[in-house]
Amino acid sequence: MASQQTTNGQSTISLGQEFTQMVIDATGPKTNPRLREVMSCFIQHIHDFAREINLTADEWMMAVQMINRCGQMSDEKRNEGQLLCDVIGLESLVDDITYTTAVNSGQSVTSSAILGPFYRHDHPIRPNGTTISFDTPADAEPVFMFGRVLSADGKPLANASVEAWQASTNGLYEQQDPNQQDLNLRGKFITDAEGKYSFYCIRPTPYPIPNDGPSGQLLEMLDRHNWRPAHIHLVVQAEGYKPVTTQIFDKDSKYLDDDSVFAVKNNLRVEFVPRKGDPQAALELEYNIGLAPLDK
Ligand code: MBD
Ligand code: FE
User: Fold this and answer.
1) In angstroms, how far apart are the furthest CA atoms of the chain?
2) If you measure from the C-alpha of residue 126 to the centroid of ligand 2, how many angstroms do you get, rounded to a whole number?
3) Which of 46, 48, 193, 206 is the most buried (most CB within 10 A)?
4) 250: which residues sit within 8 A by CB, 6+ positions away?
């Protein structure tokens, strides 16, 4: 067959659908079936994308260099590739596709939100009622956060783990900031027999995502800001239930409607309210977390 001629708007290019099919068909028979499916679709879309927008060699090389720089600046404390996905909404989309939970009538399951690049796998277990804020800055507002982990039908879940992490008031997570102690503003709490957890933290403040790499550069080129609304990250797990990765957002924060990483959901907005008679915190937040049962 003669090579198929395709028009991309202005001129005629020779590498059309026939070429794309040839690239897809180069996949060998021993490939994992899911990988074959994923890569076939990816090749199809990225070829169609290049044809549709007339991608030039210079533009393509800019993108390659951007990806390379993401890798070069990433390490165990920095995940620039993930951040780049975040600013184009990809982590939020993948989260939605992966964790869409059927919320049955009368059942309540906490919505997910993206993990983000600042999770750590080694959160220390701390006793309930203790603080995650060491070196608390003078401008921070301490908060007592408490609640229960519940099954979707309202049964308290004992021995569930609640991991929480947040940025300090200078807008930095502990691993970004040499002036914060290791594991500051992070902790893992285990629910008691009544499903209760509690800890002291600080009221979160809006936070600029790092702008010293390709993600920040892209935001600037797209005439966008790099701020996130005030949030606390949570990962909650209990045996026999689907774990939930989420974020809660201060309902009075700036940037709720224009989060630079598109993670806000209305049902994840919370209100910090005055707390009486506690010298450790003038604010409190009661937050219950609902977990869906595992698929049978
Ligand atoms: C963050 O703090 C964050 O939570 C996400 C999702 C992306 C970048 C920085
Ligand atoms: Fe965050």
Assistant:
1) 83
2) 21
3) 206
4) 203, 204, 229, 230, 231, 269, 270, 271, 272
Q: Residues 260-281: pLDDT tens digits?
A: 999 999 999 999 999 999 999 9
Residue 209 Cα to ligand 1 middle (Å):
6
Domain ranges of the chain: 17-83, 107-291
Q: What is the pLDDT of residues 68-98, one digit of tens each?
A: 999 999 998 899 999 999 999 999 999 999 8
- Ligand number, closest to the Cα atom of 83: 1
Contact in structure between 202 and 166 (CB atoms under 8 Å): yes
Stated pTM of the model: 0.92
Q: Which two tokens stand for residue 197?
A: 């957890």
Fold (topology level) of 107-291:
Protocatechuate 3,4-Dioxygenase, subunit A (2.60.130)
State the closest ligand 1 atom to the C-alpha of 231, by its place in the atom list counted from 1. 4
Closest ligand to Cα 114: 1
Instruction: Report residues near ion ligand 2: CB below 5 Å.
Output: 116
Strand partners, 270: 250
Distance CA 196, CA 160 (A): 9
The protein residue whose alpha carbon is closest to atom 7 in ligand 1 is 116
